[in-house]
């Protein structure tokens, strides 16, 4: 009788370990998937930028410094590894794109150019997708990190060396409240 009780308890413990391990693996894979979704959208934006720059160059050839900064920021974004480095590179790229769009204000013909307008619209849609992908990624990171840190899955996580994932955080410079004046 005691042997049967011990076997049932052992079986339940084995099922708990297997279930917890599979839950952790599934959560970790969702984090990886979430990161790859951000990566896909960042790549899409990076691919749009040369077309946008070439269109603007035709109108503003003397603005060489702006184009060089955009190229440099784009290269940093391409070579970024991990959420922290990608967030910093993404911030720099966003800042240089704002400079490009400020430059466009000086060229009314460019603002009316159909190719430029299409590229700008595609970039806007891509930015929205990036924002959604970041939100999704941070949601799955939160879920995964909770599983890694909460009982009883934290025991299995420690046993199998599951590490908490890094959130996608914006740099401090982007947290400043913009000043609006009329």
Can you offer a commentary on this structure?
- The termini are far apart.
- The radius of gyration is 24 Å and the shape is rod-shaped.
- It is mostly helical.
- The protein has one domain (2-168): Up-down Bundle (de novo design (two linked rop proteins)), CATH 1.20.1440.
- The protein contains 6 helices and no strands.
- It is found in: Membrane.
- Belongs to the LemA family.
- InterPro entries: LemA-like_dom_sf, MamQ_LemA.
- It is a single-pass membrane protein.
Blueprint of the fold:
Elements: H1 2-59, H2 64-79, H3 82-104, H4 108-112, H5 114-149, H6 153-159
Helix pairs in contact: 1-2, 1-3, 1-5, 2-3
- Helix fraction? over 70%
Question: Main sheet?
Answer: none
CATH third-level topology: de novo design (two linked rop proteins)
How many helical stretches? 6
How many structural domains does the protein architecture include? 1
Q: Using only CA atoms, what is the Rg? A: 24 Å
Structural class: mainly alpha
Strand residue content: under 5%
* CATH hierarchy, class: Mainly Alpha
CATH architecture: Up-down Bundle
Q: Report the span from N to C terminus.
A: 83 Å
Q: Report the order of strands and helices.
A: HHHHHH
Low-confidence stretches: none
CATH homologous superfamily?
LemA-like domain
How many E strands?
0
> What is the overall shape?
rod-shaped
Q: Overall mean pLDDT score?
A: 87
Main location: membrane
Pfam family, one: LemA
Family: Belongs to the LemA family.
Membrane topology: Single-pass membrane protein
């Amino acid at each position: 009788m005691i042997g049967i009780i011990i076997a049932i308890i052992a079986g339940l413990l084995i099922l708990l370990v297997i279930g917890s391990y599979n839950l952790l693996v599934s959560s970790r894979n969702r984090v990886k998937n979430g990161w790859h979704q951000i990566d896909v959208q960042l790549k899409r934006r990076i691919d749009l930028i040369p077309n946008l720059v070439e269109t603007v160059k035709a109108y503003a050839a003397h603005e060489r410094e702006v184009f060089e900064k955009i190229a440099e920021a784009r290269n940093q974004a391409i070579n970024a590894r991990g959420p922290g480095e990608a967030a910093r590179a993404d911030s720099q790229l966003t800042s240089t794109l704002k400079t490009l769009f400020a430059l466009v204000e000086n060229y009314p013909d460019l603002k009316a150019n159909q190719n430029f307008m299409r590229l700008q619209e595609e970039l806007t849609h891509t930015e929205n997708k990036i924002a959604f992908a970041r939100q999704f990624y941070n949601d799955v990171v939160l879920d995964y990190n909770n599983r890694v840190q909460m009982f009883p899955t934290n025991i299995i996580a420690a046993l199998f060396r599951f590490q908490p994932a890094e959130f996608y955080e914006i740099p401090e410079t982007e947290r400043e409240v913009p000043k609006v004046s009329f």
